[in-house]
Amino acid sequence: MKHEFYTRVYYEDTDLAGIVYYANYLKFIERARSTMVREAGINQIGMKDDQGLFFVVRSVDATYLRPAKLDDELRVATKLQQLSGAKLLFEQDVFRTDELLFSSMITVVCMNIDGRVIRLPKEICARLAF
Fold it and tell me: Which of 8, 29, 39, 45 would disulfide-bridge 92, Cβ 3.0–4.6 Å?
């Protein structure tokens, strides 16, 4: 499954040097993943309220290659690399036009309300596997 998300760099996203503050890339990719999941037909609030399940980021492997700057239009490319058991592995890259600025691998797990990692329900797997 692949997805593209577009955003713009605002003043609030930058640091004193006028470039995107490093932690804000994590916000950009989080928004992209959340949008991807929503567009796949998964209501995360309903998932939590009805089933007591939610997604949690377990690990982030991030590489910063080039700086994004104020008013840049960014494209976040998200690819679901692996869907197995309780784990989702996402490859997420941030581009300015076709220039790669940031690259990451994100591991997300499904947890229950008691804080235990559990297998992804079949209906969620089916929605993400298209």
Answer: 29
| Whether 15 is catalytic | yes
Residue 9 region, left (φ>0) first, then alpha (ψ -120 to 50), else beta? beta
Count of domains forming the chain: 1
Single-letter residue type at 53: L
Residue 47 belongs to domain spanning: 2-128
Q: What is the pLDDT of residues 41-90, one digit of tens each?
A: 999 999 999 999 999 999 999 999 999 999 999 999 999 999 988 999 99
The letter for the amino acid at 101 is L
Cβ count within 10 A of residue 27: 13
Asked whether the CA dihedral 56, 67, 22, 61 is positive or negative, the reply is positive
Q: Does residue 118 contact residue 53 with C-beta atoms inside 8 Å?
A: yes
Residue with structure tokens 């309220």? 49
**Is the model's pTM score more than 0.90?**
yes
CATH of the domain at 12: 3.10.129.10
